[in-house]
Fold this sequence. Notes:
mainly beta
Amino acid sequence: MITILNSLRQPLAVLEEYTNDEISEQINGSYTFRFSVYMDDEKSQYIAIGNLVEVENQYFNIVKHRRTRSSSGEVIIAVECEQVSYDLLFHVFEDGFIHTSPPSVLMNMALSGTGFSVGTVEISSFVSVELKENATARSILFEIAVAAGGELRFDKYTVSLLARRGQDRGVQFRLGKNLQGIVKDVNGQSGEVLTAYEIDVVELNTLPEFERLEYFELGDTVDIIDEELQINEQQRIIEYAYSPRQRINSKVVIANYIEGIQDTIYRIQTTTVGKDKWMYGVKIGPDEGIVIERYDKLAKSKFNADEFRMQKGDGNGGYTDSLYFDAINQEYTFTGIVRAGQFIGGSIKIGDASNTYFEVTEDGKFLAIDGEFEGKIIGSEFIGGTITGSLIRTSAAGPRIEQSSVLGFRTYDGNSVNRIRITTSSNNDVAAMVYYDSIGRYAGEINSYSDAGLTIFSENLFLGSNNSASPIRFQGAAYFLGNVGIGDIPDIEQAIKDLRMQVGM
């Protein structure tokens, strides 16, 4: 059974159906719990970062969860947790932890104000701990264990330091009995031969017929026997992983050494850059942060919480900014050429304090004082004062309108035949609008002359009206040169007689 708690350790939900559950603990190392559940509307909401999980009378922080939808449509939540000592990673001694005292005193110093308490401490001799700045309370506990030669045990919010975890219970892991699989790992890279075994075991003590027999814990000394592999050794369990739901098939790591936090801390100590000390061109200090300088003083970089600078040097210790970030004031300065494949987000503004010469806003609007383009400009709408160019057209083919500095204004039909043309020619002070038929033949034109008014020419000119109530009218004097044909005019004979009577004929 798994109980989900809030940060005040108040119960939120109880999970009884879950899979892939495993508690794994290393001596002076990691202590984790993982499980998977199917998502539901009632309890899944409580699987969240910041909540706790209680299982086997132990508390674990939910530090990660992942949701996956299967092909059947079900959502599985995989949850990863760490024992609540994980909280000690966020209690930091910024100035370091350098003290010499009995382990119990040092542990109380490390856990002061964290909500954790010191349990059993079986080692009383004085030990020295020296960790540089920004040491976490958790790393200090592991360093105390290394210095004292002891082994830590975490029980909810209580931390104990034992001389040794586990004991020799006379347990055997034997092929054909309780040993299912074995991997032997021999490593001589450190200068001494280190042997470890990864073993899949059957916990016989959970079966009724072996009740209270073959019981083992983390830290126990056990015998490993596999006649076929010629293995018959006695070593300690340094890592133990099991299912709290069904503790039958488990995994253990058995070795003649304990590798983990001790070796990690040693590597950190021997590779960490000392405060304000140069190492391979790198210096870390409280005033400037991280400083990286080239050996020839032609370049230097600074990194800290307030700023980031990449500087160009003169070779004599003088530097000027090439790249400068001021995170607090959100100011970013570049000197030189910026090359990039893509810019995403924000706006671009070029100019000075009082003038903007080029700008692209966050919503995609573009502003420029002037510009020259080569190639295509594609847009759905153009709004402005003057457009100057050799050719302006509404489409590359088909029905369109074109305007050219050479050929003037033209319209084209769906077959790309020029039907109307307004010329820009100033020959003889003539401006003309010329019409063509569907196959491009001349149909007529309207001309304007600077001294002769407006003329209409056509091989076949037709003036007509579709509305008898609004006939075609000629106002003022009208001259008809050449033959004028008159079609069928109703009552024309009577009209002529009436006209003669009016003129006295």
